[in-house]
Fold these 4 entries.
Entry 1:
Amino acid sequence: MKILTFPLLLLVPTGLRAADGAEAAHAGITPEQMQFFEKNIRPVLVQSCYKCHSAESAKVKGGLTLDTKQATLLGGESGHPGVTPGDATQSSVYEAMTWKNEDMQMPPKQKLPDEVIANFRKWIEMGAPDPRESKVVNASGGKRVIDMDEGRKHWAFQKPVKHGPPAVKTEDWAKTEIDQFVLAGMEAKGLHPVRDADRPTLIRRIAFDLTGLPPTPDEVKAFVADPSPEAVKRVIDMYLDSERYGERWARHWLDVARYAESSGKEVNVLYPHAWRYRDYVIESFKKDKPYDQFLKEQIAGDLLKFDGKRDQANKIVATGFLAIGPKGHNNRDRRQFAMDVVDEQIDAMSQSMLGLTLACARCHDHKFDPVTQRDYYALAGIFLSSETLFGTYEQLQNNNTAGLIELDRNSGQTAALAKISTAEVAELKGSYQKAKTAAEEAQREIFAMRQQDREKAGAASFLRIRGARDRAEEVKADVDLFYEDGTPRTLAMGVLDRKTPYDSPVLIRGDIKQPGDVVPRGLVEVLCAKGEPLNISPQSGSGRLDLAFWIASKENPLTARVMANRVWLKLMGSGIVPTPDNFGVMGQKPSHPELLDYLAVTFMDNGWSVKKLIREIMMSRAYQMGSGYDAANYAADPDNKYHWRMNQRRLEAEAIRDAMLAVGGTLNLYPVDGSPVARAGEGRQGLISIFRGELTSKAYNFRSIYIPIIRDQIPEMLSVFDYPDASLVNGDRDTTNVPSQSLYLMNNPQVQNAADAFAARLVKHPGTSAERLSYAYELAFGRQPTAQEKTAISNFWMRFPQQIAKGGGNSREAKEQAEFAALSAFCQSLIASAEFRYLN
């Protein structure tokens, strides 16, 4: 493994009127579907199909055109539909892509990558959402013209202004200015707020929202018994100051940052050093790092001023944000690989920080937002002028490797591996020399055979040489992990400036083989004031530092709004802007625009403090409302768009798992040092060992944020409860309610082990059986059982142990085993209940 040492030094105008038209035309397509089409389908059609199958083709082959939705559905001369929404098997375009039919193979010269074909199948099965309409010539002769002045009128591209709270009719309900905005919205729609949440419900909500864990029975009792007006603020501050807060809120950002510890795609190479970025995010939220600084460090931490070695190392680790994305390591064209990495970086940066889909302008001007292809390649030059270091060694199917950044050994960074002896270092070096020699000998021997014409160059010879060389590279990677004295090197994924900056040409249709005019490195025009310089000065290196300060500026109209909306979504259950990753023309409009601006400006005025923003929202009566049903309100606002009640929310997968361990008293709250991926290494054998090793053992009882995230191989506990695609920016997880979740909670050994631990904890609790069972309710739900529940518990306890004991004999041991089995079954029923998994 190479290591670098870092020294300590189309036709839709994008104005407002066009935006409204686009929304009307594509009302049936969700923003997520639109983004999937623009990123994964349209570019392939443009690059690989339009030459022979578009209205502009010199000769349309097979009578098939694919440049409009209608023509794509219709198909060509064969009479078969080109695309049948919902059914890939009845779609001739998909069949041609698979090359399974020898008479119909498209593109004809080279089959598309498996990942691209899989994306087309996914697109068709989701209903083939397609925003393209029949081509109509407009007043400009068919050429799409973006009017930047008109485009800047879009609400999200105008600077937020702090509005005063509106007047309301209902007196004495609003506690804060936030409440006045919410109440005004309700009153305008003829709605009224439901009553406040009771104390046990409220503290459970606060505890999970801030720590991802249930409150302890003692915490609930203390809060319920505290009648003072300051009680809510005290409990909020207690959890904000908790060590667990950083882990909880870091998880939200890691969803947005598409955090994972492998490349995904066809090869799925492990990234043993990705965990440092995870820990950086946890520590940043724990210390309430100002959000603007947080963003600057992730884009250009290596270029920022630093205060000592530790601070410098942390800032370098922050740039791992740009390095941890998915990558197609088996791509043989390194130029294409580099452009794909840059595209992924632009996509992740723009969606997560700006709430825009800038990557949609790779092949053409953005179809909906006022973003040009020139804007895209101005940004691309910035990232092409930076070296992305993700740390993989060369092996079969991994044609694209990179080094890592070596952090100063005195920077106080956690080591991923234990120290080894000097003898073990020598042994590793010896193993490398042997493997290297074996690879060289295999190559010489096969070359000699070919010279003597005794053997032709076949696949077996190639695999023999390649296997020996890969083994040598694998051992070399292990050698590079340690200093001579056996101390592990502190290595990080990240980004550094290249020695020579690079301005990118515009790539016609996004094709690296069709470069156009060179574009100076720069910023996105529509987000800059009219007349403001867009280009990066030659003295500023890659331009990442300029980009970082531009994104994190108070003058940027999007940055504070996007984060304020993310925080509101996580606390209230739905965003003021329902599409948290898309504030563009195809994103949904804010339900309370003045409230969003109020939160954004207040956020900036408070030093970009996420904790202060959270506290302000939680102190509102809107947050403290109950989730009760009101028929009249529901009839007028079934989606609770205007927050007349608190949304009921299903806990995320991590919170469900952590809560199961917490109620059983087995949750290990000690942060994990490193990651199992770091100990497994990069190779395929390492991938297998992770899931056969510590993750499946009872001993791995750490918080779920420390579970390794391997793209396309997410652990069942997480995937069954809607863990997001770790290759995509995701600000709002899906929530499903499907049979597989119930089956998991009934039958999975990890759930059964958690129930056994829960039961064992109850056995140790003093008191009668009835008191222990009541205590189980306090642990699981944060409340005492009702009178009806107590009766049901009593009936259960009288019958169930005896039923289990039948056939087991009358010995004391058999009776105790039966009682424990009954108690465990009772605990499992609590864990499997909806109340355990939901916040009211």
Entry 2:
Amino acid sequence: MANTPTPPDHPDIAPVTIEEEMRRSYLDYAMSVIVSRALPDVRDGLKPVHRRILYAMKVGGYDHNRPYRKSARIVGDVMGQYHPHGDAAIYDAMVRMAQSFSMRLPLVDGQGNFGSMDGDPPAAMRYTEARLARVASDALLEDIDRDTVDFQDNYDETTREPTVLPARFPNILVNGAGGIAVGMATNIPPHNLGEVLDACCAYVDDPDLDVNQFMEIVPGPDFPTGGVVVGHKGVRDAYHTGRGSVLVRARTHFEDAGSDRTAIVVTELPYQVNKARLVERIAELVRDKGVEGITDLRDESDREGLRIVIVCHKSAQPDVVLNQLFKHTPLQTTFGVNMLALTGGRPEMLSLKDVIAAFIRFREEVITRRTAYLLARARERAHTLVGLAIAVANLDPVIRTIRNAPNPETAKAELMAGPWPAGDVAELIRVIDEPGGQVDADGRYQLSPEQAKAILDLRLHRLTGLEREKIDGELRDIVAKIQEYLDILGSRAKLLEVLRGELVELRQRYGGERRTAIEMAEAEHDDEALIPREEMVVTVSHRGYVKRVPLSSYRAQNRGGKGRSGMATREEDFVDQVFVCDTHTPVLFFSSAGMVYKLKVHRLPTGTPASRGKHFVNLLPLEDGETISTCTPLPEDESAWDEMYVMLATARGNVRRNRLSDFVNVKANGKIAMKLDSGDDLVSARVCDAESDILLATAGGKALRFCVSDVRVFKGRDSTGVRGIRLAPEDTVISMSVLRHVEVSQSEREAYLRHVAAHGRGASDRADARDITPQRVAELEANEELILSVSDNGLGKLTSAYEYRITNRGGQGITSMDLGRSGEQRYVVAAFPASLRDQVMVVTDGGQLIRCPVDGIRIAGRNTRGVRLLRVQQGERVVSVARLAEDDIEEAASGDEAEQASQSGGDGAES
């Protein structure tokens, strides 16, 4: 403190910390932006710049019934007198008020180039002309000269400007508003004037109406460009809380384009969408194959209206193409409602009812002030007319007094000196009820200086009989108006009646039809609804190419056949994974980097059985060197995900269990799934429940079965898990299967297997009760699963799951398949459960594929080699086997007899 400099001893200098100064200066700046620039006033719905433009045009005489004036002159008036900012900002604000595609009810009538929906800028202000729109003169600025609103000094105190305009309709709802302040923003959509005025009338009739009742009158925004609001949730949230997200779509219909083609015709766009950029975006998607099925794109818009024509390929489904355009282009946008406005000089988030209530309160104040102003002016005129009426009633004495006076001052004093008989005017004077201007008990009235001056200024022609009647008639009319004004000021019911009448008159004059349609159906599932359900074979190659092919494209063959081409592969590439699922099925894609991505099957590229597909790098945001290692189809119903789990297994034998709900929200850029040790790979991820068993199979012909509950549920996704199976050197895990858990003792398992070996399945009545009862045989047979094991040389077999006894995780496992003792090294490529009613697809690294029924494969013990499923070509190996469940199998056409497999050679068993 000793080193702190002492401030100079001067009365105008005071010490202040920089923190206090920065805080005060920033708050002053923030409040200035909020109140004086960025946010609209809830009463007239205008920001200061818009209010000043309209008022300057009113003062300058640029009314709707006057000639257009140069925009530069208007901008100069605004900038010179009211708005000390750049001319470009003022002109931009004025241009927007003149654009019919920006304002639901334009407030400026522009002549010239004021921009377009294509984003074309307006012409310079020296080239355009403007004047007030009629609605601005009639409904926003009317009565502004009748003391209806407060005025304040302008920026240099040379003139006065209104703090708010006496708006006759809720402009903040009709034309909307948008602005960004410091720490807050507003975004209010436009609405239909007629609906808003009807809601105001309803509030006047019953202020206790709730927001839901107001929504029956104002169902949603009404954008100047039309379009379709889809769903009510966003609108309901916005009207109840002030915040909401409204989904807006273009208005479209289908037309016949000839040659069996259909055209999608766009006639209305969502609010604030740039038409030229929209057409460019659609063209980019067609070029990059982001949206397929479009053959032509034309913008046929003209002075008659908007028209964009999108011609679909004759094989494309127009509904699906349109839905993809909604998803990937601004044909569908979201309007984020944020109903923030200034109320009493403070920013406040408002509901629909709050806005209407604030406007009605403001109109009550305006009408009250206007009525008081008119009453004062009427009383002033009535005061003068009373003097003239008194003079006419006492014409001869008044003329005599004036004629005998030596000068005007004396005449004025003598007129004011003595009271004059009021006569028939006395009753009117009592109605006027002017302070200090009463009739005394004798029926006489004292003239005021103003009245005496008016009598002296009276022209002689006003003393004729006709003119005397006019004075009397005008006085009686003024008295009637005064009585009406007094009634309005004395009765709120009368005031509300006047207010309501003005609203009804305005609705009849300017109310128009709604442009934006409101669709009842929510759009969250529209994308799915337009995608036809179809069984698909999803094929993934070793080098990362994926495609989906309709299951009906593959026909069934007998085992041992030659097969058909399943995918066009390049050198060193081969089919790695094949699975069958629905087009609506969500699929998790687990990568070698331990990331997980999620896509619906219909988002995968379509192909033919012989096509290669599209690489994952074109579908998912993969890093350099990152590949997809396993794909897992998921249940469509997410409500059951909390009770289900995902079991993950790595090539080195580690496993980990997570709740399936951990993978509900997978963003487009992926999500961490599992931490992997260096050199390890994720080989499988399967959905399971807590009562299931896990079967790990290795390439070396080993298998280990343990309960899911042996692996704890991990809360995080960044761990390596726990050991599932202890591997021999050079051995790796090649598959993980989920099996039903069946409680069976060692003796029961052995007895059941002996019974099956002796009598086959379906012969429970022949069971020997000394070893196992027929009832227990039937029960075990009903819950039995068969494990299909396939080796790389095309041999396969079925083995009862009961032969894989349940042990603790972490062991070495037991033999699952005999790989032979030949000099050539063999390995297991697949091991998973299969039903006798299923079919399997066996794929080689050369791209050959065969589909054959499971019931043609021999059921054998664990330590056997099996039968030949596919005749493998020289130099090829089986690399992938996929199960086609009974529900997935569709009967295909028999096709070419030569391609049908009567090639049954090689079906002999090899023990």
Entry 3:
Amino acid sequence: MLVSYKWLKTLVPELTASAKELEEKMSTSGIEVEGVEIPGEGLSKLVVGEIISSEDIPETHLHITMVNVGSEINDGEPLQIVCGAPNVRVGMKSIVALVGARIADNYKIKKGKIRGVESLGMLCALDEIGIPESVNPMKHEDGIFEMPADAVIGDSVLPYLDMDDEIIELSITPNRADALSMRGAAHEVAAIYDKTVQFDSKTLTESAEKTADKIAVKVESEKVPTYKIRLIENVKIAPSPLWLQNTLRNAGIRPINNVVDVTNYVLLYFGQPLHSFDFDKFGSNEILVRQAKAGEKMKTLDDVERELSEEDIVITSNGRPIALGGVMGGLDSEITDGTTTVALEAALFDGTSIRKTSQKFALRSEASSRFEKGINEGTVREALDYAAAMIAELAGGQVLSGVVESNDYQPSLHKVSISLEKVNDALGTSLSKEEVFKIFEQLGFDTTEVNGNFECIIPSRRWDIAIEADLVEEVARIYGYDRLPNTLPAGDNIGELTPMQKFRREMRAKLEGSGLSEVIGYSLVSADKALEFVPQDFPTTSLMLPMTEDHQTLRVNMHSGLLDIIAYNQNRKHDDVAIYEIGNVFHPALEGESRPNEVENLSFAISGNIEEKTYSQNAVPVDFYYAKGIVEELLADYENVSFVAFSENPALHPGRTAMVQLDGESIGFVGQIHPSMAKKYGISETYVAGLDMDKLLAKKPDQVVFTDIPKIPAVSRDMALLVDEEKSHAEIVRVIKESRVKSLIKTELFDLYQGANLPDGKKSMGYRLTFQNREATMTDEEISNAMTKISRNLEEKLGIEIR
């Protein structure tokens, strides 16, 4: 919302604060101010000049003009200026940029010669002094801008164009849509500074002829609480007066004509969207407001034909849509230079319906944004009458008697009660009853005391206030957030981390101790990436209206995001990347729930080299066993952890991937990204792992109790095994553990051989077994018995030959 400081001063006459002071005060009182701008800032030496003669330069479109710029400039002598504008004429008053002037884009005007003719300045169009094309009523080729006939020669043009105004840009949140109007902003400023508002009014003079004799209104849609219309006859369409054009331009709205500009002016003033129709184009004397029919079509003011659906509200006449309710009017009924009778509409539309329609057609307008957020339902008739009187004043029409409406809708005013004790308890203040009464009075609330409580009748312009907490907030911001005392929360309970928060910190420390860096990926990914590491029929959740296609589906894994980060780094020559993320993935909703089930996950990805190449060693690339080692370190406190070969995920290498199991239950995986997947992302050989944090936390072992380091030395024995090729290391270790040798503390594979001198289908594996008795030194007999027990178990269960 762009607020004119000049206009605001007329609505709050007692206001003495500057625009810059307002910027700070409003920002600390609940409505953020983005900034304050002066439209004419940076412009200089732009004055009113009158063309007293004009002579064409032969065989060109140029004119040699003599321009009177007043007695204070050039010793009162006229300036010779060469100009090519088609609308130059004697007696015309225009914008003159003197030699040395600064115009748009900081361009400096210099004395020069054009076609050999000396030119001492420039006659300007609006775009040449910085008026944007989007709000400029003139095209550049139309020529220079004509100043009003009563403009004083030699004066600066900036006040005439209101370019010396200060424009305050408010960042309005949805809950404070009451400030999306000049009257709303004035109420806010008046409340902050304890001033009174002063709104102008217009006298509406009606003709004897009744509106009801010429038009009827019928509303069939439940999404239109009220619909009102007036008729103004014998209007003359023309450009609006300069003050009105200036007002609209400073608010970011392009002036069109004296009827349409009035509706936009009232939109800014009241926050009430209006629409004007050419009544003679209706083809009927009845307006029907209804829901559109499926497949029904209409052409809107932007000359685009749109296919409607049953969720759209349409204004119809003679069986055809003439406006898309609350969003945009129809091309067939627009105001043109030939319009003589204006049908002026004011209505209330359902905000949700308007939002859906405006988003569907990408028709975001000043009107639709206000209907979406809410408007003052108590001033619909007032805004309509004000606009009708203003059109009659500017376009010379006669307003027919009465308003034709679907109903005389009046909003119900909320009553909210609160005690002084609750206000002070919530804010930590010790305000008196008189102070709180004063604040409610500043806000314009009709307040009485009932049974020791403040009972506030909330005006219709503040539809955001409905409960006690809203009143507390109003007291706080008017009293001043900076004046509230600093107090500590009451209570004996000291906050602490949740079990999951503690667990996340433990895992983070282990990962960073392994050399990985934390990243935070997007929770929203493309629909394709969401299914890369899960079955293609895995249920996902997507947004109905995503900002981009790349961020439309809630992730069900974090690996795609990590691969994107690796690709980003490797594309910038950072080849060695080791990253992790701990966050939520989104699985299908649990039974009885409507929202996706958020599951805490841990994922990491490593690519490139573990060790860089130096003079003394070659580079050490990352491999499966390095990634597996990190997983083993993360799960070092757990028992019964196993890694099972896994080849069913097409995103992972079938020969270098393992399912991680805990107590026989799958808790994640570790493996290499499939080469085709790596090629798709444009990354080098990469290894990833993922673990379910919720399952890990549920099975987290009790705290490990420290035990003394054994004083008795350990003893190692080696054994060589002749094993079938299909037997895995994990199976052998499992059988060794099942031998239940209490003194066995470590099993380590130190040799693996396949090749010559071995029977077909066999491989040789060498294991080093470490024994230790914490109470006494083990004897040779004890060690031999242990080795025999393990050997027998291997022979019986796996058919292994001890070499």
Entry 4:
Amino acid sequence: MSVPKWALVPFRPRVLGVSIACALSGAGYHASAQEVEFNIDVIDIKDRKNIDLGQFSSGAYIMPGDYTMLVRINRQALPEQSVVFYPSEQNTKESVVCLGPTLVDQIGLKPDISKKLTWWHQGQCLLLDSLPGAVARAELGTSSLMVSVPQAYLEYAADTWDPPSRWEEGIPGVFVDYYMNGQSQRQEHGGGASYNLSGNGTVGGNMGAWRLRADWQARLEHRSNGQATGNSWDWSRYYAYRAIPSLGAQFSLGENFLYSDIFDSFRFTGVSLVTDDSMLPPNLRGYAPEVAGVARTNAKVVISQQGRVLYETQVASGPFRIQDINDAVSGQLDVRVEEQDGGVQTFTVETASVPYLTRPGSVRYKVSSGRPSDFSHSTEGPMFITGEASWGVSNGWSLYGGGVEGGDYKALAVGVGRDLMTFGALSFDVTQSRARLPQTEQNTLSGNSYRLRYSKNFDAYDSQVTFAGYRFSEKDYMSMSDYLDARNFGTRNENSKELYNVSFRQNFSDSGLSTYLNYDHQTYWDTKASDRYTFTLSKSFNVGQFRAVSLSLTAYRNKYNGSNDDGMYLSLSMPLGGGSSSVSYSGSFDRDANSHQVGYYDRLENGDSYQLNGGKNSDGATASAFYTHDGTLARVNANTSYQEGRYSSVGMSLQGGATATAKGAAMHRSNMIGGTRVLVDTDGVGDIPISGYGKAIRTNLFGKAVVTDVNSYHRNQLSIDVNKLPENADVGRSVTQATLTEGAIGYRRFEVVAGEKAMVVIKLVDGSAAPFGATVKNDKDQDVGIVSDEGSVYLSGINPGGEMSVHWNGRAQCALQIPEQISEVDMAELVLACARLPANDSPKKAPG
């Protein structure tokens, strides 16, 4: 782009800032109004009479009115909101900020401090004198209100956690989230072809604090060898819930599962009020379940509970570990690993929580009532009520207990938890059940169940017992789900006797060695025992020029119904060239077959990754590939496998959704189905890169994007990646934060100026120039330039046909129109005429 001749005179793009700085250096101050008088003799301009520095002349005065500002409490950003300034009664050249009740609530004052506050302007504005040491200061240049409050007045807050007063319920909206998986397989030697499609997801709507949800799951299977096509579609669950921050709990109604730390889970239709640990600071939250296993080939892992799919994903061959299951899940999980070679692994995982401890003086509780229901939405069984609570008696002791009563079934539990400090945490409880079953010989069955749990982090040894537990149940002990099975079907399903489970991790930092052990042992009164062992040993080391070489060995045994499924998986990975690529070897060994394969892994510049494998097993040569793409619209996994003489297969999965609100709509990727999200608005400017969680996404044609998988009750940071902005876009503030309740749809807007940038000259209709220091605003009221000498201005956001206005003396004085068509030559020598505005077009002033 060529530079116009008038741009070569003393004015430069940064001259205005230098000139004002020089003027300030000679300024004098009047203490009463902090008014600045500029020494304009130091400013290098021709027309010294045509200057407007009113916006810089007072450090304290802000014109009374209503402003949209970013509020910062002790430098902690709150959402943009309306802030009103009223004239000062003591000094007409000053204005006073009004901190309204809504804004004061977000400060997060302690209850005893809030009771002592005093107000002015008919109780609508906080009198800062009632908070000694508090200061409020506005910065119009950054559209920010800085509020400083002594920390002693504030509720507890952590680096990534805000007190409940700052939580947002989000905006109304609807969404559809989905996970879709498709696989096609062709068998060799006339075996025919088959394909299957499966999916699950959530349809939801938000209204204020309420979250309305409906879960669905579907499956379609087809085989070409004469077998009939099978398909199913189920709305597996209808429910609604909302957070009640004052109680630290969540209220839900509809179809639900009993989430209990004491009693076994079962499905019911009714209501629940449950203390929500996710509302606590991160270091005080509970334990989330983990599912680990080994996939022999590219596989699909489905995790369900009582027939409802909770989690579904595709994994590459080798060990896998799933750690992002909702921490509200409790009870027994059913895990199904569907291999591409047609094999299926199934096992169960007990997701019992860590020892039941409660902070001193606090009470945690769970109350539910309703009727048991089945997968077809029919209620079955008697009306029931259940409740449990835990009380932190002192610094180290907790008492807990609860009960269930419904029809002819009753259960009562009592327990104690102890923080052993250096030696970890321990809890012990006893549950007694009593059930009347007319079809049994005893008529009434009564028994006890005893449970012991332990957890410990050994920081000095860099090791952790994530969970260790033991449970013994007498033969006539029955859980509520056992009672319902016996009542409805006349039989008990797997009468549990003993259960052991241990999860242990040990790291040896000096040698780069780490170990992981998981053991589950379950015995029954009327069937054979089942065992599951998983042991992983891994080491990182250097070999010559190769750094961070990784060696891993995983061994497992699944014992069920008297038969053993034993196996071992060995892997060696070596990075290449210090980059993201690596080569690997893996070997899989079990009692039926052994396999060996070499692989190549790489992560591309756009964040995509792929893995290529080739090898041999007892049946012949094998080959497979796995590709992952985290797109703005969906997360995509694609894979293919080949086994010589047996089969070839391809598969693909899509995970994403669509969210719509009155503020806008967008399609998006999603990991956590039905989770909390934020709609980001970039003022209608598309292709703006947004960084939140995971790989950056870009706004759509309408300037909207949805960031999903944000943490509930957790301070989330969203930002614009300024290094990847389009050349014709500018952004002022590029970072924002949000703390949202569970399931909320948050909303954040970034001011983005889109358009070309150029040096232009602004002339009034009479041929004179706009004053030095006048500001130029676009039709969105965004500052896009400051006038320099003789009307010169470096203008951004130039769009053909757009409108702008020039402001001085506190109001818009003239309007200018950008030509409908502008060539590069025109852009280099652009002179814009500014038409005068009548005085009544000045901005409105707030009452006061």
